Amino acid sequence: MRHFLIAFQFLTIIPLPFDTRCEKEDLGRSTALFPLAGLTIGALLAGLNWLISPLLTRPLCDALLVAALAALTGGLHLDGLADVCDGLAARGGRERFLAVMKDSQVGAVGAVGLVLVLLLKWQALLAVPNELKWQALLLFPALARFGQVLVLTGARHARQDGLGATFARGTGTVTLILAALTTAVASACLLGFKGMLAMAALCLFTGAGRLFFQRKLGGLTGDTVGCISELNEAIVLIVISATL
Q1: Statement: residue 186 has pLDDT above 90
Q2: Residue 172 lies in a domain
Q3: What total number of domains does the chain contain?
Q4: pLDDT band at residue 76 using 50, 70 and 90 as cut-offs
Q5: 26 within 8 A of 6, measured Cβ to Cβ
Q6: What single string gives the DSSP state of each residue in 156-177?
Q7: Does any domain span residue 19?
Q8: pTM of the prediction?
Q9: If we measure between CA atoms, which residue out of 108, 66, 89 comes closest to residue 234?
Q10: Which structural domain, as residue segments, surrounds residue 115?
């Protein structure tokens, strides 16, 4: 229970009514419960959808759900997405890329990347059939958080002092297996074949993203993990909406 609360506290800005003791090694161990925390985030989105969908048109409702997800997470991974977009646009090698990502200011390319990915998530959610919408809302945050565990396990670190490195040091085979089992069961129970296909697509994209950043930067950072997570959310929604 404590590791779930640590995961939920890290992945959202929702305040807990009590302090959760957290040692450095607990961060990595908590990743086994990232998919469960993602399901909790999805449940909050599904609850919000139940409240507002009778009052609003579908496009407006789905836009508010995408905005609510960004608000619930404090834009944590969106910040990583913007930083990576700026880094990719910067001229220079590895050190220049890392320096640009560390800059707290968002550049023009980062802003464009944010807008495009948020629009993609909105349109992908809008394309999900109504009869599958609550299942998709539950599942896509959980799958994206599983992608974070997958990308972190056994990864090299581009920076030794970053948050991504702290999490990666505590992840391992056991945490990955637990996260994968939780995600596979949720995918199969909620969406059956669609869910498993979405999980497979996520694994392929996550592996490709990890390989790209390890070749480009010599390892991963928290920003690159956040970038992959944001793109995974869009990919999962696209697969759910596109498959028969």
Answers
A1: yes
A2: yes
A3: 1
A4: confident
A5: yes
A6: -BS-SSSHHHHHHHH--HHHHH
A7: no
A8: 0.88
A9: 66
A10: 2-12+29-242
